[in-house]
Amino acid sequence: MGCLDYLAKYVSLLLLISINVFLALGGSLILYVAVFVRQTGWVKVIQAYWSPINGITTALICVAGVVMGMAVLGTVAALCRWRAGLYYYSIFALLAMVLFILVGVCGVVLWSKFSGWEDDTYPASRRETDIKAGFDEVYCYAQGVYICNKGSISDALRMFAPALNLTVSAQFENVTGGVNALCNDVLNDHAELVDVCNGCEKARKFQHFSSVLDATNITTGTAPYTECRNVFLGLVSNYFLYLAIGSLIVIVGSVTVVIMSRYLRRHDMYDVYEAF
């Protein structure tokens, strides 16, 4: 009987630690999705459909960090046979479960909405026209960043100084080093380049929007959203699916944690410790 108790002790500890790893995995997946959306131009696009997305992603980053910290707390409490720690851990897990039920439902609803639009012609709904406006604006910023950093000088001149005389523009097309070299070396002698340099200076503020071009893989076009629609909808629906999956992992982990913590606190192996 003693051997069985000894075995049950370590199996229970191993199981709870495994659950904590599972819980941390769900938290890290949610953290990844929230950081990606928050730190790129996508949050501005999705905001046209769901206005609270900016604040919600920030909150999710914090909550995901708490979930990962909670997993560490649970591991320490299990290894150290800390009954009070297991008690607090189970309370945190219960609160996390309730919160991520809501997050998971939102993730599934948004995933269903965006993936459903892929099968319909544009516009699938009135709200999609709002998203198009936000996407085209972000795409414009991203295209400016691309042209200033990787594009040719002639492209930059056409974007930021379209009224510039063609003869004047031809003088700068062979300048090496791109727009940065043009502004650093030639600007003082050619005041007509002020618009180009000012435009690229402003474009640097939108550097994080470059992920829009990376995802859509096009750098030209007069109707960006309609050309990138399927890529965009597929990308966004996938990330909301990841959010729903991460939430499900946290929910399952939280339920299991509550059950296991209650079991371990009441198990005979903790009877030698002072009751909390």
Automatic annotation (TrEMBL):
Keyword field contains 4Fe-4S: no
Protein origin, superkingdom: Eukaryota
Any Gene Ontology CC annotation: membrane
Listed InterPro entries: Tetraspanin/Peripherin
Keywords attached to this entry: Membrane, Transmembrane, Transmembrane helix
Main location group: membrane
Cellular localization per UniProt: Membrane
TM segment ranges: 12-35, 55-79, 86-111, 239-260
Annotated Pfam families: Tetraspanin (PF00335)
Topological category with respect to the lipid bilayer: Multi-pass membrane protein
UniProt KW Membrane keyword: yes
Name of this chain's protein: Tetraspanin
Record organism: Peronospora destructor
